[in-house]
Write a structure and sequence with these properties.
alpha+beta; 3-stranded antiparallel beta sheet; 2 helices; 32% helix
Length: 79
C-alpha cells in the first residue's frame, strides 16, 4: 500500500468510526460513469471519465464513491 492509499484508508476508518460512513446495510445499486457528485470517502468530485458507485443508505438517500474509494471502504470493512 502506498502513502496515498494508506492515507485514504485512514480517512475512511475515521469516517466509519465517527458514523459518517456506515458499517453495513448498504446496497450497491448503480455503477456508472461519474455524475459530478462528490465522493463520500475522499470528498473529491467524481468526474465523467471516472467510475462512480452509488449505494442506497438505510432510511433513504444514497452515497457516491469513486471506484477506488469504494474498494478502499470495503477493505476497511473487511469485505
Amino acid at each position: 500500500m502506498d502513502a496515498g492509499e494508506d492515507g485514504l484508508h485512514r480517512r475512511i476508518q475515521s469516517l466509519v468510526s465517527t458514523g459518517v460512513l456506515p458499517l453495513r446495510g448498504l446496497r450497491r445499486d448503480v455503477v456508472r460513469p461519474g455524475s459530478g457528485r462528490d465522493c463520500a470517502a475522499c470528498e473529491q468530485r467524481i468526474l465523467g471519465t471516472e467510475t462512480e458507485i452509488e449505494c442506497d443508505v438505510p432510511g433513504g438517500g444514497s452515497i457516491h464513491f469513486h471506484l477506488w474509494c469504494y474498494d478502499a471502504w470495503q477493505s476497511v470493512l473487511g469485505r
